[in-house]
Amino acid sequence: MLASASPRRSVLLAQLGVAHRVWPAQLEEVRLASETIEQCVLRLARSKAFAVGDALRAGAADGVDPGAEASRLAGLPVLGADTVVVADARMLGKPRDRDEALAMLALLSGREHEVLSAVALQTAAGCAQRLSRSTVRFRPLERAECEAYWDSGEPADKAGAYAVQGLGAIFVESLHGSYSGVMGLPLFETAALLSAAGVPLLGPVSGEVPARAAGR
C-alpha cells in the first residue's frame, strides 16, 4: 500500500516491479518547533505510513467491501514517504502560492541545495525507515523564466517549487545523489526496506490499483 497521492511515487514504485494500491495519507505536513529538518522528514514519512495502516486496520477504507477484502488490505505493508528541499537551513516544502514559489526559486538560483527524501515501511513487525540525501545545483535563474515556469502549473505541488523530472530539469546544472530521491521516492532505500520485509521486487506490474481516490 502506498500512502501517497503523488503519481510520481506510484510510477517509481512500479519501476521496482512492486504491485501496489494507493491510499493517500491525510495529515498536516508541518515541522515541529522541537525537531530538526531530518527528524521532521522522517517523522512525516512514518506518520503517513501509520495513518494509512491505522485506517486500514479500522476498516475505514472507502470503496472497499467489508470482510475478507478489508482484512487482506489491513495486512499489507504500508509505504510512506516525504521529501523536502533545504537551503540556508530552511525547509522548503510545497509553495502556498505564486509569490512563495518565485521566492523559493530565487533562493535556489545559482547555488547548491540539499534534497532530503525519507521512506518508512510499516509491517506487522514494526516500522523501518531510510533517509536519502542528494545535492542539486541550479544555474542562475532569470525572474521571467521563473514566472513562466510557475505559469506552466508544474511547481505548485512540488517541494522547493520544481520537478527535476519535468520542465524544472532545465534549471539543474548538476545532481549528486539519488535522482529518484529528488523526484520523491529514493529507489535504493525503498528497495532495501521492501526486500528486508519480504516484499517481492521486479515482478510484472500493469499499474497501481487505487484503494482510495488520490488527491492533492
Labels describing this entry:
single chain, 216 residues, alpha+beta, Maf protein, five-stranded antiparallel sheet, globular
Describe this structure in words.
- Helix 4 (98-108) packs across helix 5 (143-151).
- A hairpin with a 2-residue loop joins strand 1 and strand 2 (90-92).
- By secondary structure, the chain is of the alpha+beta class.
- The model is unreliable at 208-216 (pLDDT under 50).
- It has one domain (7-196): Alpha-Beta Complex (Maf protein), CATH 3.90.950.
- It contains seven helices and five strands; from the N terminus they run αααββαββαβαα.
Question: What's the short story on this structure?
Answer:
The protein is of the alpha+beta class and 216 residues long. The protein has 7 helices and 5 strands.
